[in-house]
């Protein structure tokens, strides 16, 4: 299976009413050398300035980003190019990240190459440690910057550490 770590930045809490501004993806392998970065033009007039500020972009900048249908097709093609078999979506906060990616795939392409399920990195770590109050974030090497590729990279590094040093049985 091809585990693909994803991180999303948006200008609000839900897709449709608000917009996914950017996202990053990293194929989880030993090299972490295959990445994708997409910047998407807003699909709604609505946005929350504080939410948008997290992405380090202004509304004016986002209006010049690419058409979402084009970006989602590019992402689908990238997923297919890096996946030998079934791609697995995984993220730090899959309740948020999955919601946007799944909605955008179905809305703009009519399908989602990840299928109908996702994995949560934090929950996986909590299960490994048998502690619902713990976090994996100390396992990141790349600083969490809210640039989605950096954040996906750090989370992928944490997953690799879970495999190499903590004994997680997982195949990439």
Description:
The longest helix is centred in the last third of the chain and has 17 residues, at 148-164. The chain has six helices and five strands; from the N terminus they run βββαααβαβαα. The protein has a single domain (2-164), classed as Nucleotidyltransferase, domain 5. α4 links the parallel β4 (87-91) and β5 (119-120). It starts with a strand and ends in an 8-residue tail after the last helix. It has helices spanning 49-54, 59-62, 68-82, 94-109, 121-129, 148-164, and strands at residues 2-10, 20-27, 35-39, 87-91, 119-120. It is 39% helix and 17% strand. Strands 3-2-1-4-5 form a five-stranded mixed β-sheet. With 172 residues, the chain is of the alpha/beta class.
Per-chain topology:
Blueprint: E1 2-10, E2 20-27, E3 35-39, H1 49-54, H2 59-62, H3 68-82, E4 87-91, H4 94-109, E5 119-120, H5 121-129, H6 148-164
Parallel strand pairs: 1-4, 4-5
Antiparallel strand pairs: 1-2, 2-3
Helix pairs in contact: 3-4
Domain 3'-5' exoribonuclease Rv2179c-like: 4-159
InterPro entries: RNaseH-like_sf, RNaseH_sf, Rv2179c-like
Protein name: 3'-5' exoribonuclease
